Amino acid sequence: MSHELTDKIEARAFWQIIGERPIGATIVTTRNEAGQPNGFLGLSAAHISASPPKMLVSIDRKTSALADIVQTGRFALNFLPAEASDLAGAFGKSGPKPFETDDWDTLSTGAPALKTALGVMDCELSQIVEEDGVAIVIGRVVSARSASEGDALVFFRGAFERLKSHA
User: Fold this and answer.
1) pTM (2 d.p.)
2) Distance, CA of 57 to CA of 139 (rounded, Å)
3) In the chain, at which end, N or C, are there fewer CB atoms within 10 A of the end residue's CB?
4) Number of C-alpha atoms within 13 angstroms, CB side, residue 150?
5) pLDDT tens track for 112-164
6) Separation CA 119–CA 127 (nearest Å)
């Protein structure tokens, strides 16, 4: 189905067009002031700069993790391996998140990190830009780690897919 570019694009058409671009599956994690972990599936994470290293993620204002990030000033971006589609699905829904397994450790900021993530960026809150019902959260990367191998999980045309590594 083709859609013409107009000044007033419907939300359904907008999301369909966005879906034509593979997006890296990322779980954004944090803890509240009491130390309880929280997180969500962040399909809108991106880099801002490498020097200094900064990342951004768009967060719906209704997402409970946003309040925790604002309170603690900390969050992590966990770039998911291809095998994590069930985990991505769990973090993409409201309700309790599966932090109770041994699959998680804690970063220097206190944010939970998925041990099997292809990459993790541990961030301190730098700025929040509010636009409509979304908060664009910008973080300064204070530490990072990489698995250096493995296939990535991407979201493409409404489904999670494996993106094969060239290695």
Assistant:
1) 0.90
2) 9
3) N
4) 16
5) 999 999 999 999 999 999 998 999 999 999 999 999 899 999 998 988 889 88
6) 23
83's CB contacts (< 8 A; 6+ apart) are 116, 153
Work out the number of other CB atoms within 10 angstroms of the CB of residue 32: 15
| Six-digit token string for 48 | 């801002």
- DSSP string of 59-80, one letter each residue: EETT-HHHHHHHHH-EEEEEEP
For the stretch 18-73, pLDDT in tens is 778 888 999 999 999 999 999 999 989 999 999 999 999 999 999 999 999 999 99
Q: What is the CA radius of gyration of the chain?
A: 16
CB 151 within 8 A of CB 164: yes
Six-digit token pair at 89?
């699905």
